[in-house]
Amino acid sequence: MRVLLLGSGGREHALAWKLAQSPRLEKLFVCPGNPGTAALDPARVENKPIAPLDAPALLDLCAAEQITLCVVGPEQPLVEGVADTLRAAGIAVVGPGRAGAQLEGSKVFSKRFMLEGGIPTAPARIFDRAGLAEARAFVGAHPLPVVIKADGLAAGKGVVVAQTTDEALTALEDMLAHDRFGAAGQQVLVETFMPGKELSYFVLTDGQTAIALPEAQDHKRAYDNDQGPNTGGMGAASPVAWASPDLKATIEDEIVAPTLAALRNQGIDYRGFLFIGLMVGPEGSPRVVEYNCRLGDPETQAILPRMEGDLLALCAAAATDTLADLPLPGLPAPMHSLAVVLAAEGYPAKPKTGGVLTGLAEAAQTGALVFEAGTGAGPTAAERTAHGGRVLAVSAQGGTLAEAQRLAYGAMEQLRLPGSFYRKDIGHQAG
Question: What radius of gyration do the chain's Cα atoms show?
Fold first, then answer.
């Protein structure tokens, strides 16, 4: 198969690494990719300098290279309808169209979807700029903590869990009055806080059949012990020991199946990955925090090494409505997997770019995997420059969580980037 992969982050490096293992793959084109994807087998993987939102150029590439399948990594192309354009040209796509991508692109749509579909979630009120005074009054009387969410995409930073009323009011002002997130903050959700443990649950679906992928636990806060600002994710661990078979069965019955049914009832053709961010309460009941219409980052870098079998075969079946025709995939590999993010100085507020990263070869020699994200070409072939806030993720696997941690942090110690930092407690709640 000749395949197109859209994206340039660590998730896409991990996807390219896994797809390239398939015996079905003839050639994988990554648009635009990064230095990590460029370093994969050059006979089978090739970067192309085309932006994931440039649908005309992508169509030209698909025609020139006889591409028949596209896997969309990030959310923005999905929200903007790139999958619809490619499908209209006869290309099978792993990723929902614009209608299905609203599950991530609009938290207001998503919340209404859950409430109307009877899917367990937190109560919430919706406010816009015209209702700012009403929103202030509502927040002022709301029990704490309270969650303030910008409606649209905000790079994983449009959610504030306010511990005080002043903090909640500031978040409202930032979003509705001061345009902190631009169009993404024209509407906000004020949501009841859900106590419990977070769980990232993933399925691949063709709209009818859903295949569960390994679960993971993300670490959103910037610093150890879950301190500091929220980020796009500082690391992930898989499996999650407390995510029992009974809990997973409940998630499938009470959340996954009703979600797919509600999509069908609304006439939404959803083919691709569905990432369900869950809060599992003290009583053990899962409720949906949010949907994402793609795989998570950095969760992908933790779960793909645990996936046995041919990911490309699963993707092709999901894109062509034939998942039910495949034999059920085996259980995830009985290993622990950890992904630890190396972040640039100043991340997440104002990451400093341009620093030179060294030690990649030494990190790889430890046996860990290095999935590059915000990197660019360096002064030498063995070096990189930092081009983004999350520079890379070290992914390591072991027979125990402690072994995976030892290997991941041993590899991380080989890397050098001035001012960079990483959390040293990834996996502390997964065991």
Answer: 21
pTM of the model: 0.95
Distance from C-alpha of 323 to C-alpha of 313, rounded to nearest angstrom: 9
pLDDT in tens, 403-413: 999 999 999 99
Closest CA to 305 of 272, 334, 326, 342: 334
Q: Is 195:298 a contact under the CB 8 Å cutoff? A: no
Q: CA-CA distance, 44 to 61, in Å (whole number)?
A: 16
**How do residues 147-189 score in pLDDT, each as one tens digit?**
999 998 876 668 889 999 999 999 999 999 888 888 878 899 9
Alpha-carbon span 285 to 250, nearest angstrom: 8
Task: List the domains of the chain with CATH numbers.
Answer: 2-90 (3.40.50.20), 124-192 (3.30.1490.20), 197-325 (3.30.470.20), 336-412 (3.90.600.10)
Nearest CA to 196 among 162, 256, 243? 243
User: Residues 254, 412: contact at Cβ < 8 Å?
Assistant: no
Question: How far is Cα of residue 194 from the mean position of the Cα atoms in its chain?
Answer: 21
Which position has the token pair 């903090």? 167
